[in-house]
Design brief:
By secondary structure, the chain is an alpha/beta fold. 38% of the residues lie in helices and 21% in strands.
């Protein structure tokens, strides 16, 4: 079926994941490679194109079979210009990404925020299928969010809605990577966890199994190592992560007061690694801080799509926008 397939790409700060999606949204093939954003926009785009070609080859397809390309980026995206407004993970500010990517791919390019894409995928074919309004939280290196209201992705002014990681939960609280104080991302993200480990273990001299996995350099710690220490009942690991998960539930309760979605989905690399383990703490933070509603009124669910959520969402976004 020529020209009816879609390529979806998750452009992350450290990795690129490209997938090929059939007309009925089945993932046919995947390809991964490192981002290397230091190569600049054009160099990074060429790496995305190469990853896409590897996935197409695996699926037995070529570019002539592709209708459009959806690219999920770690930034708010201006829907009118296609500019990435601010991407600390890539070091890009106010860059005309859609224009540059289109020149290199020579295909229709549809750009959207990465967690908006992940939330859209969970809404269309994942854990939140069948609901009308949902919120998504994705916990990884940072913390991102997405909002669907009455069946439509809510992007707001200049595509900046859904930056739920920067909801302030504590006045004058911890410093976030964005420069503000008290954002939930400064409490519940791998970056936040690592900063707390550095403080408690390196600076205060607390003992932890984490030292065996990291040599006290916590920056690049893998989610799998965090899980091993958590399962071994390491006190520092459990203290830091459980507080983060509780506060994520609190943040979700705040969104329930504002949006009152039918369902809230939790995903991202950390949640994917930990599976159901965070949910009791998230649920407690949610129920203890919920206003007016009963905890049973809003379903809290784990992502059903895992790593595929963001690139599948990018493909869905491209497909739906292309059909308008």
């Amino acid at each position: 079926m020529a020209g009816k397939y879609t390529v979806g790409i998750d452009l992350g700060g450290t990795k690129i994941l490209a997938i090929v999606v059939s007309p009925n949204l089945k993932v046919l093939a995947r390809s991964k490679r490192k981002t290397k954003s230091e190569l600049g926009i054009d160099g990074t785009c060429l790496r995305m194109k190469k990853a896409s070609e590897e996935a197409l080859l695996e699926a037995g397809l070529s570019w002539k079979d592709v209708e459009s390309v959806g690219i999920a980026v770690p930034s708010a995206v201006d829907p009118d210009t296609g500019d990435a407004l601010h991407s600390p993970a890539l070091g890009w500010i106010n860059q005309p990404l859609r224009k540059r990517f289109q020149q290199i791919f020579r295909k229709k390019i549809f750009l959207e925020n990465d967690v908006n894409c992940g939330t859209l995928a969970e809404f269309r074919i994942g854990a939140a299928k069948g609901y009308n309004s949902i919120v998504g939280y994705f916990v990884g290196t940072g913390l991102g969010g997405g909002i669907v209201i009455n069946g439509k992705l809510h992007t707001g002014v200049r595509g900046s809605a859904g930056e739920l990681g920067h909801e302030i939960i504590e006045y004058n609280g911890r410093k976030c990577g964005c420069g503000k104080l008290g954002c939930i991302e400064a409490y519940c993200s791998k970056t936040a966890f690592c900063r707390q480990f550095q403080k408690l273990i390196t600076q205060e001299g607390r003992k932890s199994l984490l030292s065996d996995y990291t040599d006290n350099d916590f920056k690049g710690i893998k989610s799998s190592a965090l899980l091993k220490c958590y399962n071994a009942k390491d006190k520092i690991t459990r203290r830091v992560l459980n507080k983060g998960f509780y506060l994520l539930g609190l943040a979700a309760a705040n969104q329930a007061s504002i949006i009152a979605p039918e369902c809230i989905v939790f995903g991202g690399g950390v949640i994917e690694a930990f599976k159901k383990l965070p949910m009791p703490h998230i649920r407690r933070g949610f129920s203890e801080n919920l206003f007016a509603l009963s905890p049973e009124d809003i379903k809290l669910k784990l992502s059903a799509l895992g790593d595929d959520a963001v690139p599948v969402g990018a493909a869905i976004y491209a497909k739906e926008k292309g059909e308008v």
